[in-house]
Amino acid sequence: MKKAAFIGAGNMGSALVKAACKAIGPEEVIVTNRTPAKAETLAKETGCEAVKGNHLALEGEYIFLCVKPKQIKAVVEELAPHLAGRVLVSVAAGVEIKDIQRWAGESVPVLRIMPNTPCAIGKGMTALAGGASAKEEHFTEVEAILAASGRVDRLDEGLFDAFSAVAGCGPAFIYPYIEALADGGVAAGLPRSAALTYAAQMTLGAAAMVLETGEHPGKLKDDVCSPGGSTIAGVHELERHGLRGAAMDAVLSAWKKNGSLGK
């Protein structure tokens, strides 16, 4: 039996497969997808095994359900009669553990994760929760499988929608900002490729400063702003145009949408 099987090779499933192959080795990973060619392409890229049909995912001890929320009930019910000795790990947004548990059977350990796409390069952020049948060993095994994906944080499932609005949706909020900073650099005379590199590396470095120093972002911002300088002039423009309010509104809008996805 393989350690991990992934049903679904979309953007999120692919990111997790890549991370798992780095963490536990491609020989311990299998992947299947509704469109077999997609799984086969991913298998060639990572060295894991592609199989045809969800039932073959039962060759994995930990079965990661990387399917759309509207598809997960049918997939779990298909597998349910054969889940003895297996652990289900759901990636479906908005679908609660209690529902998956009902479809799978009360004795089946069920965990739920909420990852983001940077998991594919080891810079991700993933939330992890478990149902009543999940034991500590199941949590630690999932953490080991995802070890190469980035940070994994155990979180109360009731906060998953909020987590997803920040960490799951967040990359899509940051990319346009990086692009906009680069556009500003081009307007100021920088070559586009250079402006994009500078903006992206700056964002990476600023995020690392928050994580590695433990300083409040406001303090780090103040450290860059000299009295009467160019930085505080730029910060003034961002505040004048409502950057903070727009960011908060984006998170709250995503949070409200998350709450409706599993209904």
Summarize it.
By secondary structure, the protein is an alpha/beta fold. It contains 11 helices and 8 strands. It folds into 2 domains: 156 residues, NAD(P)-binding Rossmann-like Domain (Rossmann fold, 3-Layer(aba) Sandwich), CATH 3.40.50; 94 residues, ProC C-terminal domain-like fold (Orthogonal Bundle), CATH 1.10.3730.
Average pLDDT rating: 95
List the uncertain runs. Answer: none
Helix tally?
Answer: 11
Main CATH class of the largest domain: Alpha Beta
* Assembly of the depicted chains: single chain
What percent of the residues sit in helical stretches (DSSP H or I)? 40-55%
Structural class: alpha/beta
Number of beta-strand segments: 8
Number of domains: 2
CATH superfamily placement of the largest domain: NAD(P)-binding Rossmann-like Domain
| 3D shape | elongated
**Might you state the CATH topology name of the largest domain?**
Rossmann fold
Strand order of the main beta sheet, please? 3-2-1-4-5-6-7-8
Separation, N- and C-terminal Cα atoms: 34 Å
Structural description of this entry:
This protein is of the alpha/beta class. It folds into 2 domains: 2-157, Rossmann fold, CATH 3.40.50; 168-261, ProC C-terminal domain-like (ProC C-terminal domain-like fold, Orthogonal Bundle). Helices cover 54% and strands 15% of the residues. It contains 11 helices and 8 strands. The chain has helices at residues 11-24, 36-46, 69-79, 97-104, 136-145, 160-168, 170-187, 192-213, 217-224, 230-240, 243-261; strands spanning 2-7, 29-32, 49-50, 60-65, 87-90, 110-114, 124-130, 150-154. It has an 8-stranded mixed beta sheet with strand order 3-2-1-4-5-6-7-8, with helices on both faces. α2 links the parallel β2 and β3. α7 packs across α8. It is elongated and about 70 Å long.
